[in-house]
Write a structure and sequence with these properties.
Helix content of chain B: under 10%
Structural class of chain A: mainly beta
Order of helices and strands of chain A: EEEEEEEEEEE
Number of helices of chain B: 0
Number of helices of chain A: 0
Strand content of chain B: over 45%
Largest sheet of chain A: 6 strands, mixed
Strand content of chain A: over 45%
Largest interface: A-B, 25 and 29 residues
Distance between the termini of chain A: 41 Å
Number of strands of chain A: 11
Structural class of chain B: mainly beta
Largest sheet of chain B: 7 strands, mixed
Distance between the termini of chain B: 38 Å
Oligomer: heterodimer
Shape of chain A: globular
Shape of chain B: globular
């Protein structure tokens, strides 16, 4: 069974710093990997999706990389802002359809960017 | 554009009471639909998924059930809630298009007291 782990569980940084969030998964046979943002008490917002054949995706100040062979992904946030404070979730989709192509989630990294 | 609606946003229910959470999707047809739960200190856990009307698959044994009476409607139910049913419930959908991205509703915070 696919296990997804996110490190660190929580992170506090001053505004302006660049930071890296880590995600690892136990089964490298994934179809894609998705990074989400969750604000307190809210639903999930998709940030970046990386297909298994891709190495990275970029959106604004966000860059996500994927190393499928080692079972790792990183989310890089440049020049962090207080508005980036949220929980960041990593999720992988396995290639088979046994669960209707559902996602396997990590527990998330809670990020606090202080002014 | 596609939209997903989930209600209610918050719910406080006594132990033993029934539950009905509803999720509807607009702007797409024949989506895969999902119910996830996020319990305190745990990651998002898949509860049910549906690939079509009347087709429900359960991922974990539990006190809950799901139904899909219409193509774009997904309902999560319980006849008698347990304390352990407390959590944040999220509905999601996907199609084969849009790079297989899953889209999530705003969630329902359920507290069973």
């Amino acid at each position: 069974k696919q296990e997804v782990t996110q490190i660190p569980a929580a992170l506090s940084v001053p505004e302006g710093e660049n930071l890296v969030l880590n995600c690892s998964f136990t089964d490298s046979a994934i179809y894609n990997l998705q990074w989400f943002r969750q604000d307190p008490g809210k639903g999930l917002t998709s940030l970046l999706l990386i297909q298994s054949s891709q190495r990275e995706q970029t959106s604004g100040r966000l860059n996500a990389s994927l190393d499928k062979s080692s079972g790792r992904s990183t989310l890089y946030i440049a020049a962090s802002q207080p508005g980036d404070s949220a929980t960041y979730l990593c999720a992988v989709r396995d290639p088979d359809s046994n669960s209707g192509y559902a996602l396997n989630f990590g527990k998330g990294t809670s990020l606090l960017v202080t002014p | 554009s596609q939209t997903i609606h989930q209600w209610p946003a918050t719910l406080v229910q006594p132990v033993g009471s029934p539950l009905s959470l509803e999720c509807t999707v607009e702007g797409t047809s024949n989506p895969n639909l999902y119910w996830y739960r996020q319990a305190a200190g745990r990651g998002l856990q898949l509860l049910f998924y549906s690939v079509g009307i009347g087709q429900i698959s359960s991922e974990v044994p539990q006190n809950l059930s799901a139904s899909r009476p219409q193509d774009r409607q997904f309902i999560l139910s319980s006849k008698k809630l347990l304390l352990s049913d407390s959590g944040f419930y999220l509905c999601a959908w996907r199609t084969g298009l849009a790079k297989n991205i899953q889209y999530f509703g705003a969630g329902t915070r359920l507290s069973v007291l």
